[in-house]
Write a structure and sequence with these properties.
The chain has about 300 residues and is an alpha/beta fold. The protein contains eight helices and eight strands, in the order βαβαβαβαβαβαβαβα. An eight-stranded parallel beta sheet has the order 2-1-3-8-7-4-5-6, sandwiched between helices. The structure holds manganese (II) ion (MN). The site of manganese (II) ion has 6 residues, from loops.
Length: about 300
């Protein structure tokens, strides 16, 4: 059997889980009839591409804090069997450090956040980079579709939510956002949509007062402009650029404690490793931003 690549093992020897700050969890989940054709190959492509990364992320060498890559979560079966496995893996990683979950389709964020909530026993806020709001209650007959993940987080798990880079919204999602905005008892949803962020070149956002101290960051790669990563199921023009993404994430890390993150929805295109590399770089830069914010606090 081929060796499954570990995150940046070309430069940093794998650390035991107890001795690693960052815990990479591959979740090759794609619950569609075309299983195997798209996002299921995302985690392996990111891990392979990670071995081409430079150890220096532009500011420091986050790998010095230790990486531990888990075996891929078994994604055979439907959400009712796979989601508990995701929760177990993320819960275990939370004992040791910061989980970085690699998707897979976006629906995996719901069990990941649930596991993080359980592990900390405190309110967790979610920061979502995404082209889509993912606030539908149901999509194509499923409440666990990738198009519904933010609704599962906000509506079911009760997480306050900040959406960054959204530029594709259904009428139902617009109504949901405004209903929440007018309901003082609902957890907050704050939208920094691409139509304002991108033309105005905004590089910093201020989190709302009362937003939880502990945050989970979910990065749907389609949140960035397709000029950065076109290898995703539903690319949408007009997304945030590379440096804008880094600045926005840095501004989040300066205000709250990022305790877990995921990078989802990479659908590798054969013969086009550039996009796999870009996704691996997103993971690496995210780790670096988290590492520096932790040592600063
Ligand atoms: Mn999404």
């Amino acid at each position: 059997m081929d060796h499954t690549p570990l995150f940046l093992e070309s430069e940093f020897a794998q650390r035991p889980a107890e001795d690693a700050a960052f815990h990479i969890i591959p979740v090759p989940y794609e619950h569609t009839v075309s299983y195997g054709a798209g996002t299921a190959r995302g985690p392996a492509a990111i891990l392979e591409a990670s071995n081409q990364l430079e150890v220096f992320d532009g500011t420091g060498c986050p790998g010095e804090e230790g990486f531990h890559t888990y075996p891929a979560v078994d994604c055979g079966g439907g959400p009712e069997t796979v989601f508990p496995r995701i929760m177990t893996a993320v819960g275990e990683a939370m004992h040791h450090g910061v989980p970085l979950v690699l998707g897979g389709e976006h629906s995996i964020t719901a069990p990941a956040v649930e596991a993080v909530q359980q592990a900390v026993g405190a309110p967790v806020g979610v920061i979502q980079f995404d082209a889509h709001a993912d606030l539908r209650d149901e999509y194509e007959g499923s409440r666990r579709s990738h198009a519904c993940v933010a609704r599962r987080l906000h509506g079911d798990l009760g997480t306050p939510l900040v959406q960054i880079g959204v530029r594709a919204l259904s009428p139902e999602e617009i109504v949901y956002r405004s209903t929440v905005a007018n309901d003082p008892s609902a957890p907050v949803i704050v939208a920094h949509d691409a139509a304002v962020l991108v033309p105005e070149g905004i590089t910093e956002i201020v989190l709302p007062e009362g937003f939880p101290e502990l945050v989970y960051v979910t990065i749907d790669v389609d949140g960035l402009d397709p000029s950065v990563i076109p290898a995703t199921g539903t690319p949408v023009p007009g997304g945030i650029g590379w440096y804008q993404f880094l600045s926005l994430l840095t501004s989040i890390a300066a205000q709250r404690r990022i305790i877990a993150a995921d990078v989802v929805e990479l659908a590798p295109i054969a013969g086009q490793p550039a996009w796999d590399y870009a996704a691996a770089e997103i993971v690496h830069r995210t780790i670096g931003i988290i590492a520096r914010s932790r040592s600063a606090s």
